[in-house]
Amino acid sequence: xxxxxxxxxxxxxxxxxxxxxxxxxxxxxxxxxxxxxxxxxxxxxxxxxxxxxxxxxxxxxxxxxxxxxxxxxxxxxxxxxxxxxxxxxxxxxxxxxxxxxxxxxxxxxxxxxxxxxxxxxxxxxxxxxxxxxxxxxxxxxxxxxxxxxxxxxxxxxxxxxxxxxxxxxxxxxxxxxxxxxxxxxxxxxxxxx
Length: 193
Hints:
6 helices, globular, mainly alpha, 2 strands, two-stranded antiparallel ribbon, about 190 residues
């Protein structure tokens, strides 16, 4: 049986939204495992992903060209939770998982799995950077790991993924989530300096 994108996004949101809510203003300048971003920039990026992938669910154009600046304005934590709920609803709409979506003409389900991956992996990035606990849903991890194994070569060419992080003993004994993090170029043992 195929898991629905909106059901997977809902499961991911249940675990990622509390991480974003738990970020304090004092932590916005902290480094993250995603080396090109500090906490504020990464939270802004994730916010931008959540907003744009709503449009992609509706087969509309997305816009990642502008520098996002959501964090630090008004009640941005609640706004993130609201936009994430809207993302789940967008992918529940009839036809959201059918056909193609986005400028690259990828299958809509692939696009949905990309959103799922960002919500899952960046929640870990933010949790690690801010000292929070985060355990993703195992079904979500399995779905994202399968998708990202296929997408990794293209993701690396586009700069979305780093080179795969070498796991000890070739990954023997690593969890699926540790394998996913390594696949995206992250050290699963990363701690804030």
